[in-house]
What does this fold into?
Amino acid sequence: MAEEVGREQLLTIDELAAVTGTTVRTTRYYASLGLVPPPVRRGRVAYYGPEHRARLDVVRALQEHGFTLQAIERFLAALPADATVEELALQRAMLTSWTGQPGVEITREELEQRAGRSLDEHDLTMLEKIGSIERGATGYVALPSLRVGVELLDMEVPEDAVEAAGEAIRRHMTALADELTEVLREGVLAPYRREAHSPQDAVRLERTMSRLRQLTLEAVVTGFQRAANAVIARSLKQG
It folds into this structure.
């Protein structure tokens, strides 16, 4: 049962694992690597506070981006040893993946089940080129765009055109992501950092960042649709 100490609620390792979506075994392993600070002892029972939960949240956010545990360890080591819960929440707000569903590492058989058909080496190479799968350590990583990739394979579209379109999308989306990230960093996060905030403010910021991501994605789709319509209109005028 959680224990109240001062104004902070301390959790047992079972409770900490439950609220962060990890297992007790994984939480203990992270602690053994130094990814979270030592627990607070009350007799023979170990308790974990808000700072432990905040660090575990950062670890999970980094894992969603494909960071190895060694890379996560280096990232956390670069943070101030006395980083507050608010500062850690700010890190998580910046790190939270824009993808609703992270890639899942699966076997060749599982990949074909998801695709709904068998996949030869040529199919796998094409899916990798258009960003629908990645090669994993022991299998494949199925990305959220797998369904789109399989549909493209089944359409009578020249492969060169599919590859060219994929490259154009990656090139422009990378540039757009760089620019929008800078806008968020300088226009939203920098002003936030300049003032003192409560833990509740940090939670609200994270919710705001999450909603901004959703609105930005919607705006990108709408903006592309308008730009495409403008191109069609120009081509019609030119005859």
